[in-house]
Every structure is written in structure tokens, then in C-alpha cells.
Structure to design on (646 residues):
């Protein structure tokens, strides 16, 4: 008796190379699972950039501080949705809090997420904006007044002492927040890195590589948003700030590239039994995504662009253009990185003797349209958030921190 | 030092969230929700409540001693009565009015005995289309002591998989006896009288060494070809052209 192959998979059967096990024809982790680490990476990266201002006192980056916080929040709010849509039955998701499975890294996501959202990000944003919320609550007419009053938890005190306390609180939360941001994205890498049956994923470097690429993508995103939003408002770009953010971006890309190169060389030198199929995976299935998009366009070209912008005495307008190009290319590269990890890791057989194919749905629940919607949603949330909580400090301030 | 008012406010919110979480976790949700013992006992209760369908082999023995003894000595000794006859608890309770299932057509036996390349070699397998078409199995075979009605004449009767492989190979025209010697005993008690297999490189060399007669067989220099390996470590004799 021969098992019937579902019609949507017969097409894939023709694209199988070599030998695979019968249950490997279907790729289960779809593009939504690509979007998930991409989104959390942006959160962690944006937060790290924000923390530079508060913890390391990098004054130049101040103009991006609030934007970075709000970016982190809007992407964090969307981050669980790819998982929820992929798993289905969203209404049951709260059960992971009620009956926690302490020995499963995947089942701990709810706690990692809740801690980062409520323990760090919302708290930091609240302390950062509290004084302004109070001021706006006084300035605006209802109903916006009620919104600001409620958001400030009906707080009233904007004395110097109270604002000084807010600043201290923000600093403390940021200090706790850095390891928490590392935890959030390191955790995503940990999940992949600890799957020991999959040689493409199983690497102790995985959490660190994830973290560095997260920082790269987050900084690039904030740079991009800062340039777009400021230009839309017809305000001048702060070139000092741009140069500083771009230099951090440069260092982050260098470290990220070195780590990924180390991982690659290490695998090559170890030459475990999986090395042949992984070489085939890269040369046959992932050549475009990994070699061209991720490494060449997503890393080497932006690196060259950033170096060019720094070493040559180029005028500010050209520099802006170069930074903008680099930021966009880096987003492309990091998204390819996530794709290559998630989809790439499912494209070879556990027998190490064959390669499968992934056919993306277009309109299904796990299709391209859903993924694009999820990638777009944070920008809509950010649009509302930036409108509601402008980056500019409220006027008529009795005290203004330098 | 007096606490700033915003700390009190945020503390109230945090306290509210925490209280709510603790309330839901420890008061609103019944303890049973978290307890594996409750799940376990429920599963046991559910399984115990299912009706018993099987009588068990010893129940059959009480009345059907003759078939029981016959089966215990035959090839089907590893099978329970109810493997073929179906769940018979009802029959054991009330032997006269409830009769168990008895497979009398050609559908049931091929479940195990139809040819399938994955079955172990020597396991009796038939091609259902060509093996006495339309005849019910039990006209020739007694399922309680399933020996072939006559001693098999050809090796293929049991070694169907090998026979099919060889048929496609360059060795198709060689009789099995070219390489194997099987005593008459092997046909009656196949496992206690095993046939012989070639032991040396020289055996294959009778046809394949340079200078031997058979012009169709590929020739190799027996002294140097393949180093110290035995021929069948690289070449599968039943399909020699297959690549290892």
C-alpha cells in the first residue's frame, strides 16, 4: 500500500534532491517563524541603542533616544503574533502562564516576553514620559487630556525633585534592561542553538550571533526611522547624531560579521559528518539568500559604504544618502539571516543525504501576505505612538534636563 | 526620605497586576488544573470504563484444545487466537449464540503474506494475483498448522525478494544451485538445515578470473582486484551490477 501524498506536496516532491525521510517533505516552520526572530531582534537592537544614551551617557545619540524606545515598544507588541498565528488557537495562549513548563525553553517565551514588556520597556517609557504627560495633560483639551491624564496615572508632581527621581529611575531600569534585552533575543537564539539534532542550528554561538545581528538591525532601523521621520517633518537632521549612530552601526556590523565568520570557519574546521550536506545546502539552496543577500549585499556592501562615508571627507548630503543606503541594505541582510537560519535549517534531510524545498504560501494564514502585514503593523503602531508621545520634550518646563 | 508620588502610583499599578495574577493563579483556577495526579486518575478511570473485548488465549484453550495444541507446534505459535478470529469475549461468555469471526476468503491471509520487499527474507510471501487465483487460502493451507500442502519445488516460493532481484540481474540465468547447495531437509525444516554460501574469492573467480571459459562474465585479475576484500563486500551477488 502506498501512502497518498497530499496534492500540495506532490509539487515539492519533484524538487527534492537526493534522499530524504518521508516525513521531511513538508517544511513546518514557515515565513512567520522567520518574521518572529527578525521582529524581536529589532526590539532588542533598538533598546540597546536607547540605553547608550542613559547608561553610557552618549550625548550625541540623544535625539534618537525616545524614538528608539517607542520603536522597541511597537515592534515588541507585534513580536508574539507570528508565533500565535503559526500555532493557532490564540485564545489558549494564556495557559502557558497558568501552567508553566519550566524545563522547556520554548514554553518560557511568555515569561521572557512579559518581563521585558512590562518590567522594562513600559516602565522605562512611563518614567521617561511622565513629566511630559503631566504637562500635555494640562495643555490639551478633552478627550486627549483624559488620555494623557490616564497615561500619567493621574500624576501631578513635576517639581525638580520628582523629575530628578524619574531620571534616576530611567537609568536604573536601563541598567536592568540591557541584560533583559540580551535575554530576550539571546533566548530566541538559544532555542535554535539548543536543537542538537539539527547541525545548522546547534551551535553555542547561536545566541550571541543572534544578539549581535539584533543590535545591527535595531540600530539600522532607528537610523532609518530617524532619517525618515525627521525629513517628513521638514526638520534638519542632526549630523553629529547620525555620524555617531552610523559609527555604532559600523562597529556592530564588524563584530557581527566576525562572529558569523568565526561560526562558519569553526564548522568548516570541525568538519563534522554534516559538513558535506551543509556545503551543498549553501551552494544549492541558499546561494542567493546567504552568499549574495546576507553576506554580500547585507554586510560587505554596507560595511564598504560606512567605511567610505567615514574615511572620505564626503559632504553631509552624500553622507546621509550613504547612511540611508547602508541602513536599508542591512535590513535586507538581517532578514535574509533570519530566513537562512529558520528556513535553511529545514531544507536538508536528517539523513544528511538530501535537500528539500520550501514553497511559500501567498494568502494563507502562514503566507507572504500575513508576513508582510506583520512587518507593517509595527510601523502603524509606531505612527500612533509618535503622534501621541512626541519625541520633543514638552515646553513650559520648569526644569529642563540638559 | 519621602517617596515621590509617582512611585506610589506605579506601585499601585504593579500591585494591582501582581494581585490579579496571584488571584487568578491561586484562587480562581482549581488546584486540579495543575495536578498531574488528577489527570492520571481520570485517564485510568476512562480506560477502566471501556468494555472488555478480548477473551484472552487461555479462554480459547478450555474448549478448543485440539486446535490449540496444533497451533502451539506450528509456525503460527506466536500468534494469539484472536489475531485472526477477532475479539471474542462475547463468544467466551455465550459460546452458542455469539460466534467469532473466521477468515475464510482470500482477503485476510495476504495482510501478512502478500509479497512485500520489506518483509524478512524466507518469510512466506505470495503474489496474490498469480498464486492459485480465486481459491480461498484454507482449501490448501490449514491456518492452525500452516505448512505448504506440498514441499516447495523452487527457492522463489520462500525467497521471493531475492528471486525478483536476481531476475533483473546479469545472474538471472544462473540457477540458485550454482552458488548455494541446499539439502532436501532445508525444504522441510528451513531453519535447522541452512543452505551453503560461497566462502572464498576463488569461488567467484571460477567465472570472473582472467582466462576462465565463460565469455559473457566480466573478467578481473583475481590476485590484485579489490585488495583483501571478499567479492560480496563490494558486489551484491544477487544484483552484481548494483553500485555499493
Amino acid at each position: 500500500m502506498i501512502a497518498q501524498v497530499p496534492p500540495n506536496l506532490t509539487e515539492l516532491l519533484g524538487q527534492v534532491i537526493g534522499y530524504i525521510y518521508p516525513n521531511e517533505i513538508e517544511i513546518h516552520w514557515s515565513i512567520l517563524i522567520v518574521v518572529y526572530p527578525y521582529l524581536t531582534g529589532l526590539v532588542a537592537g533598538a533598546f540597546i541603542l536607547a540605553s547608550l544614551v542613559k547608561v553610557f551617557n552618549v550625548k550625541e545619540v540623544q535625539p534618537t533616544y525616545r524614538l528608539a524606545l517607542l520603536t522597541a515598544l511597537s515592534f515588541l507588541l507585534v513580536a508574539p503574533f507570528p508565533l500565535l498565528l503559526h500555532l493557532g488557537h490564540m485564545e489558549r495562549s494564556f495557559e502557558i502562564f497558568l501552567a508553566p513548563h519550566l524545563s522547556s525553553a520554548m514554553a518560557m517565551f511568555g515569561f521572557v516576553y512579559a518581563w521585558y514588556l512590562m518590567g522594562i520597556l513600559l516602565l522605562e517609557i512611563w518614567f521617561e514620559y511622565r513629566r511630559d504627560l503631566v504637562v500635555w495633560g494640562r495643555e490639551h483639551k478633552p478627550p486627549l487630556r483624559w488620555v494623557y491624564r490616564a497615561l500619567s496615572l493621574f500624576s501631578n508632581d513635576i517639581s525638580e525633585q520628582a523629575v530628578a527621581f524619574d531620571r534616576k529611575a530611567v537609568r536604573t531600569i536601563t541598567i536592568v534592561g540591557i541584560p533583559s534585552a540580551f535575554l530576550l533575543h539571546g533566548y530566541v537564539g538559544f532555542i535554535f542553538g539548543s536543537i542538537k539534532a539539527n547541525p545548522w542550528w546547534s551551535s553555542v554561538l547561536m545566541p550571541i550571533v543572534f544578539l549581535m545581528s539584533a543590535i545591527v538591525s535595531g540600530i539600522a532601523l532607528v537610523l532609518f526611522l530617524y532619517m525618515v521621520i525627521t525629513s517628513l517633518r521638514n526638520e534638519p537632521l542632526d549630523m553629529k547624531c547620525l555620524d555617531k549612530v552610523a559609527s555604532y552601526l559600523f562597529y556592530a556590523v564588524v563584530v557581527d560579521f566576525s562572529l558569523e565568520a568565526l561560526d562558519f570557519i569553526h564548522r568548516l574546521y570541525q568538519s563534522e559528518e554534516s559538513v558535506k550536506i551543509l556545503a551543498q545546502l549553501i551552494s544549492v539552496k541558499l546561494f542567493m539568500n546567504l552568499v549574495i543577500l546576507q553576506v554580500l549585499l547585507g554586510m560587505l556592501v554596507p560595511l564598504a559604504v560606512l567605511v567610505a562615508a567615514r574615511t572620505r571627507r564626503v559632504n553631509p548630503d552624500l553622507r546621509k544618502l550613504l547612511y540611508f543606503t547602508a541602513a536599508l541594505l542591512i535590513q535586507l541582510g538581517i532578514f535574509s539571516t533570519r530566513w537562512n537560519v529558520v528556513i535553511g535549517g529545514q531544507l536538508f534531510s536528517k539523513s544528511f543525504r538530501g535537500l528539500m524545498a520550501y514553497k511559500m504560501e501567498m494568502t494563507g494564514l502562514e503566507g507572504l501576505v500575513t508576513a508582510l502585514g506583520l512587518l507593517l503593523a509595527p510601523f502603524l503602531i509606531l505612527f500612533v505612538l509618535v503622534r501621541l508621545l512626541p519625541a520633543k520634550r514638552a515646553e513650559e518646563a520648569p526644569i529642563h534636563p540638559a | 526620605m519621602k517617596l515621590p508620588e509617582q512611585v506610589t502610583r506605579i506601585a499601585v499599578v504593579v500591585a494591582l497586576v501582581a494581585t490579579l495574577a496571584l488571584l487568578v493563579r491561586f484562587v480562581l483556577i482549581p488546584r486540579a488544573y495543575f495536578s498531574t495526579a488528577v489527570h492520571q486518575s481520570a485517564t485510568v478511570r476512562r480506560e477502566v470504563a471501556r468494555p472488555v473485548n478480548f477473551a484472552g488465549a487461555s479462554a480459547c484453550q478450555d474448549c478448543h484444545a485440539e486446535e490449540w495444541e496444533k497451533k502451539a507446534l506450528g509456525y503460527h505459535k506466536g500468534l494469539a487466537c484472536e489475531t485472526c478470529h477477532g475479539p471474542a469475549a462475547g463468544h467466551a461468555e455465550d459460546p452458542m449464540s455469539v460466534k467469532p469471526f473466521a477468515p475464510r476468503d482470500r482477503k485476510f491471509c495476504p495482510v501478512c503474506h502478500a509479497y512485500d520487499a520489506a518483509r524478512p527474507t524466507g518469510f512466506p510471501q505470495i503474489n496474490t494475483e498469480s498464486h492459485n487465483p480465486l481459491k480461498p487460502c484454507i482449501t490448501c493451507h490449514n491456518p492452525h498448522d500452516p505448512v505448504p500442502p506440498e514441499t516447495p519445488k523452487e527457492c522463489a516460493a520462500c525467497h521471493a525478494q531475492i528471486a525478483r532481484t536476481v531476475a533483473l540481474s546479469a545472474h538471472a540465468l544462473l540457477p540458485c544451485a550454482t552458488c548455494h547447495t541446499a539439502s532436501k531437509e532445508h525444504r522441510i525444516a528451513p531453519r535447522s538445515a541452512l543452505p551453503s554460501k560461497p566462502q572464498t574469492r576463488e569461488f567467484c573467480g571460477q567465472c570472473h578470473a582472467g582466462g576462465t571459459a565463460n565469455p559473457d562474465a566480466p573478467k578481473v585479475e583475481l590476485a590484485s582486484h579489490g585488495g583483501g576484500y571478499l567479492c560480496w563486500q563490494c558486489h551484491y551477488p544477487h544484483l552484481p551490477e548494483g553500485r555499493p
Q: What stands out?
A: Residues 160-193 of chain A form the longest helix (34 residues). Chain A touches chain B through 18 residues (CB under 8 Å). Residues 28-388 of chain A form one domain.
